[in-house]
């Protein structure tokens, strides 16, 4: 370990800490080390260094205030092979990243997302309807919802079923992409660059990259061409890609960048939103008191005769607290995405060397007993005390409520769209349903493992079982009615549907 680096676990010659570097669920090990080595510590990976931040003040200073110096991403050769360097989330802090990022900000403004609320609310009403008709399928209904919202808002084309061609194509391409990105799936190409030159026929990982690239291209550029076709025929529906195509030259985007931006935003927005909502259901089942309090509040504010709308949230401090608590309890990206230092930085006497990888261990911060009372449990009440949920007498001013969406120049550009989805559905869920544990053959509740999560940079609960029942016949009727009324909003996003999709749409609108 070079002088000036923050402390960290003991190293071995040549390997550094490589032999103990966690291959999965790194946030748990990183948090354990933080409790020993402190809020800023370092890991040696061969001759390279990684800095792990589990300290809110350090995150604020280094990642937000000095973002110009910490907004790079570590090089990832496999990502470049698949995306040609055009995936905004993993691409380096480069000219093309800046162009893509600017384009994303141009379309995903708060106002633009508000303009798309009708389709988001219509999709949310289908989600309630799907759960009402087939509660045991809730996990995939939510996944369909997450995907269909982003497909509609971005590409103007919705996925009425989980099996709709575009949804399936996305889930399959995404699965391949995640496999390619998984640590250990490829040789350490970024550490030993000569491996890049192994011919494809001898390198399975290169074949996997080509396969993933083809799958992504087919979907992303297929959607782009469909949007162009609709524009040519004068059938605009106001989706974001239409705007992007119209402003392509002004934004400095070529065809490849436009197609990839549209595609990578599906990646960024689809399963993240779904994972958040799946975690919320897990929490509602595992913490019945919190569920009851949220229901009491929504009953008081809304009653039984109508569904909630986004404007109602202002009147519901407990549900707002529950939404923040779900971000804290099970963050969708427990270590954000790795950043990289562009320059040497100095912080509290430590050196953060140029070129090092920086991990923001948001899990460790959100589960720090120094900051939060009873951090392992889902306790929305903490966010009624103050906006950061910290325990009395603690200074939480280095935190901020939107911290789960990332830091500095890399912070999530989809935050407005995501928050609208989260807010609408969180209210809908507690208004509409009771969520209880599944039972065994003797009728005993089955204990839920609230740590059974998927691996990866973005994580969510693995598929789990629970019982979901409507809270009243009146509410079930309102859900049916709202879903039928949504048909109007859906109609301009339902073109080119397969025969199976058309039949599904007809059947689902005929009866539950
Ligand atoms: C619950 C929902 C979501 C959460 C919690 C979330 C969180 C995050 C986080 C933590 C990052 C990494 C920030 C960093 O490295 O500092 C990120 C990046 C990103 N997110 Fe989201 N996100 C969500 C939804 C969305 C949606 C709906 C979209 C698209 C419409 C989206 C698009 C992106 C993109 C493109 C990036 C990469 C930004 C860059 O590297 O410049 N996300 N998000």
TrEMBL record:
List cofactor names only: heme
Which pathway does UniProt place it in?
Secondary metabolite biosynthesis
Key words of the record: Glycoprotein, Heme, Iron, Membrane, Metal-binding, Monooxygenase, Oxidoreductase, Signal, Transmembrane, Transmembrane helix
Q: Note the Gene3D superfamilies from the entry.
A: Cytochrome P450
Q: Give Gene Ontology CC terms.
A: membrane
Protein's name according to its UniProt entry: Cytochrome P450
Q: Where does heme bind?
A: 412
Localisation: Membrane
Q: Which InterPro entries match?
A: Cyt_P450 (IPR001128), Cyt_P450_CS (IPR017972), Cyt_P450_E_grp-I (IPR002401), Cyt_P450_sf (IPR036396), Cytochrome_P450_fung (IPR050364)
The species this protein was found in: Favolaschia claudopus
One family name in Pfam for this protein: p450
**Which family does the record claim for this protein?**
Belongs to the cytochrome P450 family.
Q: Which domain of life is it from?
A: Eukaryota
Could you tell me the membrane topology recorded for this protein? Single-pass membrane protein
Q: Give GO terms: molecular function aspect only.
A: heme binding; iron ion binding; monooxygenase activity; oxidoreductase activity, acting on paired donors, with incorporation or reduction of molecular oxygen
């Amino acid at each position: 370990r070079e002088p000036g680096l923050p402390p960290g676990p003991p190293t071995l010659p040549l390997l550094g800490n490589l032999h103990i570097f966690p291959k999965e669920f790194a946030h748990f090990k990183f948090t354990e080390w933080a409790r020993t080595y402190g809020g800023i510590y370092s890991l040696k990976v061969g001759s390279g260094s990684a800095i792990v931040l589990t300290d809110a003040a350090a995150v604020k200073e280094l990642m937000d205030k000095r973002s110009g110096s910490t907004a790079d991403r570590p090089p990832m050769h496999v990502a470049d092979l698949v995306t040609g360097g055009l995936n905004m989330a993993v691409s380096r802090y480069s000219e093309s990243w800046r162009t893509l990022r600017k384009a994303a900000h141009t379309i995903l403004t708060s106002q633009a997302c508000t303009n798309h609320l009708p389709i988001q609310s219509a999709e949310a009403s289908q989600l309630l309807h799907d759960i009402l008709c087939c509660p045991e399928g809730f996990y995939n209904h939510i996944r369909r919802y997450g995907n269909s919202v982003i497909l509609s808002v971005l590409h103007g084309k919705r996925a009425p079923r989980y099996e709709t061609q575009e949804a399936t194509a996305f889930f399959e391409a995404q699965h391949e992409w995640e496999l390619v990105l998984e640590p250990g799936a490829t040789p350490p190409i970024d550490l030993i660059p000569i491996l890049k030159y192994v011919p494809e026929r001898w390198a399975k990982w290169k074949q996997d990259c080509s396969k993933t690239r083809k799958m992504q291209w087919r979907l992303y550029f297929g959607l782009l061409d469909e949007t162009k076709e609709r524009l040519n025929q004068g059938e605009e529906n106001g989706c974001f890609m239409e705007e992007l195509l119209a402003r392509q030259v002004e934004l400095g985007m070529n065809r490849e960048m436009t197609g990839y931006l549209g595609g990578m935003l599906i990646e960024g927005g689809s399963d993240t939103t779904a994972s958040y909502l799946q975690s919320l259901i897990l929490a509602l089942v595992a913490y019945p008191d919190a569920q009851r309090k949220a229901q009491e509040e929504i009953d008081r504010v809304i009653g039984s005769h109508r569904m909630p709308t986004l404007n109602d949230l202002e009147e519901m401090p407990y549900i707002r607290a529950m939404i923040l608590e779900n971000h804290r309890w099970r963050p969708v990206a427990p270590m954000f995405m790795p950043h990289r230092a562009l320059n040497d930085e100095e912080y509290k006497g430590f050196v953060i060397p140029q070129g090092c990888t920086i991990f923001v261990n948001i899990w460790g911060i959100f589960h720090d007993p120094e900051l939060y009372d009873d951090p392992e449990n889902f306790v929305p009440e903490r966010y009624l005390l103050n906006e950061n949920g910290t325990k009395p007498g603690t200074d939480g001013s280095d935190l901020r409520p939107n911290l789960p969406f990332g830091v500095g120049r890399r912070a999530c550009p989809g935050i407005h769209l995501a928050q609208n989805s989260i807010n609408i559905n969180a209210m809908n869920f507690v208004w509409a349903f009771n969520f209880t544990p599944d039972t065994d053959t003797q009728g005993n509740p089955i204990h839920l493992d609230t740590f059974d999560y998927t691996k990866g940079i973005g994580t969510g609960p693995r598929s789990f079982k629970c019982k979901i029942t409507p809270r009243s016949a009146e509410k079930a009727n309102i859900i049916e009615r709202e879903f039928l009324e949504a048909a109007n909003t859906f109609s301009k996003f339902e073109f080119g549907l397969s025969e199976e999709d058309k039949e599904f749409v007809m059947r689902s609108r005929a009866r539950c």
